[in-house]
Amino acid sequence: MSSPIARRFRGFLPVVVDVETAGFDPHRHALLEIAAVIIDMNDQGQLEPQPTIACHVLPFRDAELDPQALAFNKIDPYHPFRDARSESDALKQILTPVRQAVKASACNRAILVGHNAHFDLGFVKAAVERTRFKRNPFHAFSVFDTVSLAGLVYGQTVLAKAARAAGLDWDDSAAHSAIYDAEQTAQLFCRIVNRCQALNLPAPSLSA
Hints:
- The protein is of the alpha/beta class.
- Helix content is 39%, strand content 22%.
């Protein structure tokens, strides 16, 4: 029997993902941070974020590090206190709980939720390909993008502005870390979907 969250999104389990990287090309530039927030549904039918899963990631072999990207996100990829893991270990840490949540919720697959979601999905897919990680739980190309959803509901597409429009607190000094941005995006996504439900509006459509 399917669960309420499975019925809400046609068998897909929403999982918010944010990555911090050393550039824009997922095949050339290093993945440096990844955070995921699994979305669940309470007894009242409201979406709620679950605890965050996160990992610092070591650059893959021969990865390029764009100095402008590192200056923007303020990440030192080889800082000894980062406690960074290889891409293979990082994917195991992040994707194994996602797979378990998909099974527990009787969903068919996870669907990535993100702010400019195809950027995050592209880096996840590239890391999966490099490491030959088996059984990636995410849909290969469909996403929920909070840029589009927030633009529709709040008239804002920048994450900070959309979060504030949704009534969320925003700390500029904490932004551009995978954990903070994933948690804020998760709160934003839940508020949008819960607001649509309160207004008896249809569920947002899958983006392909």
